[in-house]
């Protein structure tokens, strides 16, 4: 019964292909979930940074010019539309670097009442942005690599989901806030 | 936070990764977190309360040496049960690219997974062949940590993607507060040089130091070399002229306390390693104890020593250069005091308070907006056909 054997083999082969496709779709699904979580975490860290910057700008511990620069940038970062977000966040990084170019500003913040907590919150926030962004972009890269795989393309396993985009911005923290050698930063 | 840590290497065998996992777990427990460590170990070995045994590791030849690894159905089942029972907020696995417990954990779990890459191995054939198998497991990792810029570069080249750099931690206070031991201290008549590491492991570089010793003793005849570490002592001094052998003291294996006291006592710590280092924790320990450091210019060492600012470097395997630098440093108390001071400031970034805060920041970043760790049911074939039981 050669026909029956052939049919059985075809069925087995199709089943194996099906298992493989379902497994690959599962991988892709999990990667998209990972991107969503990473994106949420990145959003949270960016928002935290902008909030603390805005708090500092309105607290009156910095000189008026620095306060205005910082307020403007922090406000811009919080209000930015999705397409302008990368630019606005980069501008906040630049503003923070400009304001905290010298350690005297940081000392001024620390000396204000409750300033010690604010200073350590700010240094934690500026350090976490590059971290969260790296994790996000790593997830995006892994997803893009899998999506470009021919199995995924031929069988349209990615569905209609838009290809994920990396978040590109200038996230260099001000040197005085990023210095891990300083004992008073936790 | 409930944290699950996977250590791929046997708990009963001392090693850099094991010590890192132990110190990390104890640091996190002190901060009030719930930590469970899954590690291979013999059933007879007494384990700390936070360690769960994953069974015995099997010695197999892998990547040019005999590695003790865990694999097979039994280990996989144990990993799965541990993940299920632990109900962790975050899973932290170490060395996920070795075919061992870490890879099994990566395979068996889903949710926020953090991975630390310790080694900077050159790309191996096995890894290239295993890439299609490795990739689905590795792409579950939400956050990658490399212990040095060097380890990060290897990771990026081999596996793609990116990682954050967080160095290995050291309990700086433990080394800084150790009591110096008078018989290990140098005096006006002669200084002491320290070396810690396996004597019979050429990559630790004792032969280079032995080659440099005659020149050092010629310039400063009363100098003593203190060697702490396992190995054949007779063989180590075989190259040395008999008259000079008295200047070498072997201390054998030393306890953590004695190691700290030794580093506190010596006038110079020499790290002549010739390769295979991805971090160089011993240099941080020496700097913490206030010992001036002279090290070979391996990539990893150069980075730990801040490009030569926190300690002196010499070209790797160049015994003449080592001897010249050592002689110069021993004759220059001002330079040694300067190195002590620089080292002291530099090590703060390696203290567990700093490193632990950074690792926790990673945990918090990946758990933000993510569910907790759970067994990955998709990996079971039964699950795929909807037959899995809970």
UniProtKB/TrEMBL annotation, chain A:
It comes from the Bacteria. Residues 165-186 are annotated as: Disordered. Keywords: Membrane, Transmembrane, Transmembrane helix. Gene3D superfamilies: LemA-like domain. The chain crosses the membrane at residues 6-25. This is LemA family protein. It comes from Streptomyces oryzae.
From TrEMBL, chain B:
Keywords: Glycosyltransferase, Transferase. InterPro entries: Glyco_trans_4-like_N (IPR028098), Glycosyltransferase_grp1 (IPR050194). This is Glycosyltransferase family 4 protein. It holds the Pfam family Glyco_transf_4. Residues 14-172 form the Glycosyltransferase subfamily 4-like N-terminal domain. SUPFAM superfamilies: UDP-Glycosyltransferase/glycogen phosphorylase. It comes from Streptomyces oryzae.
